[in-house]
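Problem: given the chain below (715 residues), write out its structure.
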Amino acid sequence: MRLRSIELTGFKSFAKKTPLEFGSSITAIVGPNGSGKSNVAESFRFVLGEQSIKSMRGKRGEDLIWNGSSSSPRGGRAGVKLVFDNGDRALNLDFDQVSIERVVHRSGSNDYLLNGSLVRLRDVQALLSQANIGSSGHHIISQGEADRILSSSARERREMVEDALGLTGFLYKREEAERKLEKTGENMREVGALRRELAPHLKFLSSQVKKIEDAQKLRNEIGEKYTEYLGREHLHLQLTRAELSEQQGPQQERRELDKRITHLRADLGRKHDAGTDELIELEKRGRDAARRRESVLRELGGVEGELRAHAKIAGEEGGTVPVREARDFGERILQLAEGAHWSDLVALARTFLQKITARSAHSDKGVLEEQKRSLEAELKVVESAEEAIVNAVAALRQKIESEKDASRDAERELFAAMSRRSELEAALAALRSREELLGREELQFKEELREVSALLGRVPEYGQDVVFEDEPRSAQEDRRRALLRLKIRLEEAGLGNSSEILKEHSETAERDAFLERELHDLEQSAGSLRKLIEDLTETLETRFEEGIGLINKEFDGYFTLMFGGGSASLALIKEQKIRRPSEALAEGEGEDEEFEVEEGIEITVTLPHKRIKGLHMLSGGERALTSIALIFAMSQVNPPPFLILDETDAALDEANSRRYGDMIENLSKKSQLILITHNRETMSRAGVLYGITMGSDGASKLLSVKFEEALAVAK
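Solution.
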């Protein structure tokens, strides 16, 4: 990877866009003091993510922006862009050219762009660390900062060495892992707190679920017992219903007996009522005939008396009725009498009398005789009728008497039928009682089916061709009472909203299980991060120790070259420092303090022909040479893509300048060098020279000059 160019726009004294191309392994930037050439070195710091404005000779972010002049207005922003040739993919991006740009606004906000896309500073730093371009700035040594590596603390010195050794990427990874581990620890504590907060409610819900499970077991037990109970009850009802259906014979017999009894009673009633009524009617008619006979006799006696009296007066004989009519009249009366048609008989007699009367109307003797004949005829009729009635009564009485024996047999049959009916009624009453009991049992069975359906949410399959052993009915009653006790226990559980409890418990348990899994994952992640940190730490320590050995070799060589002898080395030291007072000390309960071990680097030098072994005893020039030797040594061990040296050769004499020139030529074989210098010897080693001048408007301008011109410009 090579640095192709840098472009400054509105950065400090560079008011206009100023590009610098780096086509040579050594590029020198020259110019008089105050021309702004050191701003180029600071622009490198800026674009690579330096956060200390002070290190760039400013107080605020807006101090880095062109502040304007009488001829040029001040800028609203400052930007610096670096362009790298990434053909070797040293930067882990699939681009042949990579640009990194930083822009600062007067508001103080900063933008970082990677190939024109906004990114975070961390993204830029992580990318550059892949190419051994770290954030410590070991590859950018500005004027007056060459001594920084010597004056820094052991801890800071270690960081610069780590950066120079290319361990920044590992450090980033370890820091990222530590941040992740810290964040994981926070998440673990948060998840643990959530689980602790959830635990009492989950415990309560679990106890409720236990009750629900117990209740469900009770439901299952009830279901099992109901299966047997309902099966037995169903079979009992079926058998009882079938048995009652088979016992319908008495009902039919009862209906037949009812008909027979009704018939016998009607028959006996008809016999009794018909004979009695007929006898009463005949006796009534007999009495009426007797009274009529007596009446006719009286009338006949009166007529005969009158006739006797009239005969005496008239001396005449009466007329007669023709024999044929009299015979017909007598035969008719006989027929009517035999048929007991008394009203017709009376009407016939009256008609006959009317005829006689009509015929004899022409005779005060003829009339009487006619009347007599009529009465006599009527008397005969009446007597015949009376005789017939007497005979009929006698016959009827004989008939009634003969029927009494038959009635007794019918009565005995009636009494037997009624007795049998009483027996059947008793049997039917028992049968109806069983029917009513069966009806109540069937209703109760249906009610129990509804109840068990509501209780269990289903009806057990109870009628699956189950054959039960015969047992007394009391056993089934015992089962019913046992089921009642179980249902009472279930009701006492009082878990009507069990579905909501189960749902809440399930959700809470799932939440707890999720948190448990998350905690487990976090613990595994924390373990992985700890292992990663351990591995990175081990790698860092191993590579650091190896790097220190290599740097010591180069450092001693460069130091010997610079000073013509002597020795120099780096040593790893550990210092125990107070980190913070303990809580006990803060509360005044103790005097213990907490310590942490801090590792750093100590520099030891020995000058030739001098008894100087400490950095504090070196002169300014000696310190400059020592720092240059160390910087070059670090750059030789793990060369950065580029190295910027801002007037680090200012304090060198001619002899040391030549040595310095030799070293940078050797170093340029591995890294691009951008040298900001006034030194003739140093300029002579550069392949490209850029001159920086500043006009009356205070803006820096870039000149590309030849070596001879550069000498004049530098002065």
